[in-house]
Amino acid sequence: MTKRKVLAYILTIVLALGLAVFIYYLISLKRFYDVRESLNKNSFDFVISDDLQKDKIDVYWSTDYKHLKKIISSGKQTGLKYKEYGKNTFIVTYDQDTVGRFGYFKFNNWHSHQHIVKLTKTDHSIIDFKVEIYGPDAKNKIK
Question: Is 130 helix (H, G, I), strand (E, B) or coil?
Answer without folding.
Answer: strand
